[in-house]
Amino acid sequence: MHAAAFAWAGLRGEYRAQRVEPAALPAQIAALRRPGVLGANLSLPHKEAALPLLDALSDAARRIGAVNTVIHRGGQLSGDNTDAPGLLRALEDAGVGAQEGAVVVLGAGGAARAAVYAALTGLGREVYVVNRTPQRAQALAAAWVRPQGAALVRAVDVEGVPWEQVGLVINASSAGLGAPEESPLPDFDFGRLPAGAGVYDMVYQPHETRLLRDVRSAGRRGENGLGMLAHQARLAFAAWTGLEVPPQVFLGALHEKLD
Length: 259
Ligand code: ATR
Known about the structure:
Elements: H1 2-9, H2 25-31, E1 39-41, H3 46-49, E2 56-57, H4 59-64, E3 69-73, E4 76-80, H5 83-94, E5 102-106, H6 110-123, E6 127-130, H7 134-142, E7 153-155, E8 166-171, E9 198-201, H8 210-217, E10 221-223, H9 226-241, H10 247-258
Parallel strand pairs: 2-4, 5-6, 5-8, 6-7, 8-9, 9-10
Antiparallel strand pairs: 1-3, 3-4
Helix pairs in contact: 5-6, 5-9, 9-10
Bound molecules: 2'-monophosphoadenosine-5'-diphosphate (ATR).
């Protein structure tokens, strides 16, 4: 995607994949301060481990507790999280979740924290978190208690969700990732959702998971994670270069590689 964006912008930039062992992370982060380096993307487990190694953090990175984008300027490194705004843009593009109503987040890892942050700050909706291991959902929800003690995010089991009041379900679990028949909600009747409700599955490989198939066969809207992947990259590229490259450039590169 970034190679396509550099080409579109007529820049001689290079985006390289690099394997970094956890012990080497501080040295690799320090190396980003070299002149000519625009920044980096981080994947697990570095997304979380990099936080104390950076000079500044965006609100999103701090609240989510994960950095997917490091931006270098004049020797200073700042950490951002473009997953949350990328998700919001992808939802808007797909017209999924435009319906009023609560948001259900499936999963309780870093991806789920980004989804909760997006739902609260971008959509301003009530959030229910459902996770295979309930204790992790409870820990996630506890981080969002207002000083006055009001819960913004509730950890519940599947039957604790008021499904008839839900506008959007986000799969932020890794169920279905590389395993098309695995679903975070196996045997769930998505007909319990209001007719206009939608489901966003962050999984993009395979393009159609069992979750999305179940959603669509119940007549509800479902969208895979390709849009979020493209938008988080587009936003990172904009932070590094100051250039707004059209989303189609990133999506086109993804389809070329993954279809
Ligand atoms: P990330 O930070 O990328 O979100 P993670 O911390 O490994 O990654 O989280 C993966 C999430 O997917 C977890 O919520 C996990 O549930 P557990 O907390 O019970 O481990 C969830 N998950 C993974 N496989 C799943 C499956 N087959 N069914 C339901 N949830 C699953």
